[in-house]
Specification:
The chain is flat and about 45 Å long. Strands 1-2 form a two-stranded antiparallel sheet. The protein has one domain. The chain is about 35% helix and about 20% strand. By secondary structure, the protein is α+β, with helices and mostly antiparallel strands.
Amino acid sequence: KIFDPFFTTKSVGSGTGLGLSISHQIVVEKHLGNITCVSAPGKGTEFIIEIPVSLPEKSRDEITIYALSV
């Protein structure tokens, strides 16, 4: 739920709730990676971002086609 657009725990007028949604979109959709949140009350929160070093052949072709259509 924290990666949903406009989700926030802040009071009204204190942020848009888009930061984690945009981060998720960049990491997962654009870079074919993964973003994970680990949180424990009173201990803190950890975000793990994994981005592949290389892409599968099919993904490379799709990205090239997308880049050419821009």
